[in-house]
Amino acid sequence: MFGTDVKIGLSSSLLPAETVEKLTTEQELEEILQSVVSNYEQRENHSVSDKEDSTVSNCCESCGCTLGNEQTSICGLCDKKNTIENERSNSKLSLEQQAKKMKFRSINKFPPCNVGDTVRVKLPEVDRSKGDPQNVLFAVVSISDNQYYELGNKNGTLHQLYSRNQFTIILCSEPLIDILEVLATKNLCVK
């Protein structure tokens, strides 16, 4: 190749030069090659068994996948999954505590009212024209579940139930709208 003869033979093999010089027959060459192959196979078997032993001992406790040379008993994915579950449970508890605080503040900010109290309901801007009043006075007709109020005036009752934060109580010595004047048979709409 490239102007020179190819030099292939025992001198170009991986065998040591001392053993190549001592060889006289082909049988001796075959014996040496067999011993080299058997030594190689033995080394390979030992390394495979060592790898099998190390892989069996390094398995994830949760999912059973093989681990590298890590010292932990849980793989990264299972660890991340456990962390996510813990964070979700902590956030759920925090949201429940926050809801309790909000309800407590709402109860303190908007004290309950009684049947017969006069209340003021603000009309939405969409439902009124420029000449219409911003607020309408009603009397509390009934209370359901201690948090929903049915309101009415002399023109009739509203078909919708209101929560305490949707109206304000008008504090007077005498009620502005008498509950006896409220027509319970006729339903009204705020619009």
Write a concise keyword list for the protein shown above.
191 residues, alpha+beta, seven-stranded mixed β-sheet, 7 strands, 16% strand, rod-shaped
How much of the sequence is in beta strands? 15-25%
Order of helices and strands: HHHEEEEEEE
Structural class: alpha+beta
Q: C-alpha Rg, in Å? A: 46 Å
Q: What is the percent of helical residues?
A: 25-40%
Could you describe the largest sheet, including whether it forms a barrel? 7 strands, mixed
Arithmetic mean of pLDDT:
81
- Overall, the morphology is rod-shaped
Strand tally is 7
Care to describe what's here?
This protein is of the alpha+beta class. It is built from three helices and seven strands; from the N terminus they run αααβββββββ. Strands 1, 2, 3, 4, 5, 6 and 7 form a seven-stranded mixed β-sheet that branches. Strand 2 (135-144) and strand 3 (148-153) form a beta hairpin. The longest helix is centred in the middle third of the chain and has 34 residues, at 76-109. It is rod-shaped, with a radius of gyration of 46 Å. The chain starts with 16 loop residues before the first helix and ends with a strand.
Summarize the structure.
It contains 3 helices and 7 strands. By secondary structure, the chain is α+β, with helices and mostly antiparallel strands.
Topology:
Elements: H1 17-22, H2 26-57, H3 76-109, E1 118-122, E2 135-144, E3 148-153, E4 156-158, E5 162-163, E6 167-169, E7 187-188
